[in-house]
Amino acid sequence: MRGAAAGTEAVALRGAAQALFEAGGRHVLPTTVQNAVRSAVESQASRVLMADAGKRLLESGGVAGALAEGGIVRAVAGQTLRGAGRQLLRGVSAAAGAGALIDGGWALASAVRGMRAGNMTGRQATAHVAREAGKGAVATAAGTAAAAVLVALTGGVAAPAVFVVAGAASLGAKMGLDAWLGVGATAQAIP
Q1: How far apart are CA 106 and CA 91, in angstroms?
Q2: In the predicted model, what is the mean pLDDT of residues 152-170?
Q3: Could you count the other beta carbons within 10 Å of the beta carbon of residue 33?
Q4: With pLDDT > 70 as the criterion, what percentage of the chain qualifies?
Q5: Per residue, what are the HEC states of 13-73?
Q6: In 72, 90, 149, 167, which residue has its Cα 20 to 30 A from 141's Cα atom?
Q7: Contact 20, 80 (CB under 8 A)
Q8: pTM for the full predicted model
Q9: Which of the pair, 31 or 134, is modelled with greater confidence?
């Protein structure tokens, strides 16, 4: 669910990220690198999204040339750099809020079970919920931001690929946070 929240928000932010690409992101990486990264990401996302159906989605979603034909580039051309930055910040913040709710909700359910079983005190349960909500917020925001940076540096990436990148980055960030901060004795003690 966290990955879906990150992916949904990242797809919604594609226009703002495209505006950043048009405003100067296109000059960060050489064009050949941009094309190679975009192609590799869309190819891998196509594999993830059920072979033929995913490939058709990516082809219909198109890359930079198709975006220009579809009018998205024209739509974001009028968007100011400051406005795009604000939109990205709001989007990443919204993704963080969704991640906190998702992971905090699961942690709350497990904490209630742990307290009822006598495995946790109220203080341990509160700490567990706060820790998990925080990790969920950071992981979801990281996934959304990673996908937005991909678009800002490489140009128009198909929406399904952006969704997959955000979901995968969110999952990776959560796994990294779990490893770094540890799952904790309170979470392991919950049946």
Answers
A1: 23
A2: 84
A3: 12
A4: 78
A5: CHHHHHHHHHHCHHHCCCHHHHHHHHHHHHHHHHHHCCHHHHHHHHHHHCCHHHHHHHCHH
A6: 72
A7: no
A8: 0.72
A9: 134
